[in-house]
Amino acid sequence: MEKTGAEVVFRWFEDLWTQGGEASICPPQDASYAISGDGSSVPISSEEFRRAHRNLKEDMTDIRLGFESFASDGDQVICAMVVKARDKVSGEPLAFRSKFDGRVRGGQLVSASNAIDYFWAE
Prior knowledge:
alpha+beta; four-stranded antiparallel sheet; 6 strands
């Protein structure tokens, strides 16, 4: 039985954030990535995205995901979540908000757009 879009995305988030699965960081090779802020968007390669995500995770421990909303309709999955963790060096709490929009086909994540607000404060 094929997994639902919600099951695929939940598993992807779990692997991406808490299990450390390097293979899960980028969905398909034809995906596009960008860093956005202050109204501008700068395209980056999948390798730059992998490196940025790996560097972010290396500085954190005790990573937890809290979903504020989650909707799945056919092949589209949209959610908003808060990522909470601790800084590995100082032990200080960290938190940021993320909005995700993805597509699932054939039981696999085929596209993903993720907007992260690092300046969000609880």
